[in-house]
């Protein structure tokens, strides 16, 4: 029997990324409040939020300073936009702060309200830039299988997951996907990480040559693949890929929507992984998820092109009502102030060895084929057979079952396609809370193993 609130949910809400058929039976998990790394449901049950919401609540759930920053801005000037040259001080100050932090040559910042919008903006800017440079045929975008870049039409076209394409008439023409850099799953027998990286770079080069380098505008990659499986790249991967991109003048977009702002123990994930992109998309942890905000960095040559077009057409024709919402900018400024004052990024680097050691230990569990990660992000791959790396029938929903058992243990984690489980807690998690998280996850894996045996799954 669903509770009153749960029954009303089922009757009224379409949930993103939810099995809407089983949801009618199981109903929602309704959360009511949060404190530190914990969230509480309507019965007052606490859960460790082992996913930081959706990879975003970096500073945890009860940060009064963020609340006060939002309240003060709402009281003073709840809304003004950035169209037609209008501006506001939190927007200006945040752009200055981000320009300072960006590890790529940055002339200006363009704000959006989400990661999908940031990546859609990147596609449009790559096209726009090549039009400005007088090479209108250079427009194709290369992304990666299992990459995740959002759900709007262009960002979903870059996302490399079947569920975002089948039945949606996507990807759009001109969006291509190169191989996923998951060594455990896709390397050949005996292939080293370096050799695997070089093979993927060679495959990317072959794709660019097949398409014609004069038609390829940009390549997009997350530092650590998030929704595609919490996949860390193999050694030498970005160095090998970047050599190819440089050879064919292909713009490199880093999707730092998950890894930006501390996740890997560096301000941006690319800094930990040898990435040298031309531009960065960011969102999520910038406001600790308290209010929506995203954006992209704009380098000087691109800005020059925007200036030229403005002179010709009278304006730069892109932006949304909430691009650079003042409340979001105020919360982001406070988030970065707290990051700096409290040494959040260094704190992640300090806690990472403990987190990664507990994660790596899970690879000893009988149903875990691989446990991998960096900083405070990690993923598990559930397998039916460790030696052959064979997986269970996807229809059995083993990872989903594990996530449900974890919820029963008071832990929120997320299952991803391909029987993967992701862990990505708030960056402020304490060492004893890391232990509690992995103790609960271990119990969930034990229960999953017992369930598999009871079902007779092979
Ligand atoms: N890029 C990455 C790497 C993401 O993880 C996500 C969201 N999970 C997005 C883009 C899309 O962001 P949003 O959901 O805010 O549109």
TrEMBL record:
Transmembrane segments: none annotated. GO terms for molecular function: transaminase activity. InterPro entries: Aminotrans_3 (IPR005814), PyrdxlP-dep_Trfase (IPR015424), PyrdxlP-dep_Trfase_major (IPR015421), PyrdxlP-dep_Trfase_small (IPR015422). Keywords: Aminotransferase, Pyridoxal phosphate, Transferase. It comes from the Bacteria. SUPFAM superfamilies: PLP-dependent transferases (SSF53383). Belongs to the class-III pyridoxal-phosphate-dependent aminotransferase family. This is Putrescine--pyruvate aminotransferase. The lineage of its organism: Bacteria, Pseudomonadati, Pseudomonadota, Alphaproteobacteria, Hyphomicrobiales.
């Amino acid at each position: 029997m669903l509770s009153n609130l749960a029954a009303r949910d089922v009757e009224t809400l379409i949930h993103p990324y939810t099995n809407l058929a089983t949801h009618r039976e199981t109903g929602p998990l309704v959360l009511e409040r949060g404190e530190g790394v914990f969230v509480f449901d309507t019965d007052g049950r606490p859960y460790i939020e082992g996913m930081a919401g959706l990879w975003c609540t970096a500073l945890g759930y009860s940060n009064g300073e963020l609340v006060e920053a939002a309240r003060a801005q709402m009281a003073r000037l709840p809304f003004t936009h950035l169209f037609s040259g209008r501006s506001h001080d939190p927007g200006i100050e945040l752009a200055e702060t981000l320009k300072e932090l960006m590890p790529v040559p940055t002339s200006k910042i363009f704000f959006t309200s989400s990661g999908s919008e940031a990546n859609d903006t990147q596609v449009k800017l790559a096209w726009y830039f090549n039009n400005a440079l007088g090479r209108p045929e250079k427009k194709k975008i290369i992304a990666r299988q299992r990459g995740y870049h959002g759900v709007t039409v262009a960002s979903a076209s870059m996302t490399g997951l079947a569920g975002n394409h089948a039945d949606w008439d996507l990807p759009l023409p001109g969006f291509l996907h190169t191989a996923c850099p998951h060594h455990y799953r896709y390397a050949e027998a005996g292939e080293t990480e370096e050799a695997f990286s070089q093979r993927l770079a060679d495959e990317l080069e072959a794709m660019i040559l097949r398409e014609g380098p004069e038609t390829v505008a940009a390549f997009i990659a997350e530092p650590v693949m998030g929704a595609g499986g919490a996949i860390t790249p193999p050694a030498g991967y970005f160095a090998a890929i970047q050599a190819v991109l440089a050879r064919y003048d292909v713009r490199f977009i880093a999707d730092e929507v998950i890894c930006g702002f501390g996740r890997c123990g560096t301000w941006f994930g690319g800094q930990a992984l040898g990435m040298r992109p031309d531009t960065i998309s960011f969102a999520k942890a910038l406001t600790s998820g308290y209010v929506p905000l995203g954006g992209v960095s704009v380098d000087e040559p691109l800005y020059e092109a925007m200036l030229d077009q403005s002179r010709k057409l009278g304006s730069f024709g892109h932006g949304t009502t909430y691009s650079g919402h003042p409340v979001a900018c105020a919360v982001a400024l406070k988030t970065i102030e707290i990051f700096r004052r409290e040494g959040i990024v260094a704190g992640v680097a300090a806690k990472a060895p403990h987190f990664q050691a507990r994660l790596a230990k899970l690879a000893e569990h009988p149903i875990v084929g691989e446990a991998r990660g960096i900083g405070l992000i990690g993923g598990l791959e559930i397998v039916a057979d460790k030696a052959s790396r064979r997986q269970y029938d996807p229809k059995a929903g083993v990872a989903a079952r594990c996530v449900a058992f974890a919820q029963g243990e008071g832990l929120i984690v997320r299952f991803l396609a391909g029987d993967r489980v992701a862990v990505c807690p708030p960056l402020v998690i304490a060492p004893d809370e890391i232990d509690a998280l992995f103790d609960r996850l271990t119990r969930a894996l034990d229960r999953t193993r017992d369930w598999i045996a009871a079902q007779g799954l092979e």
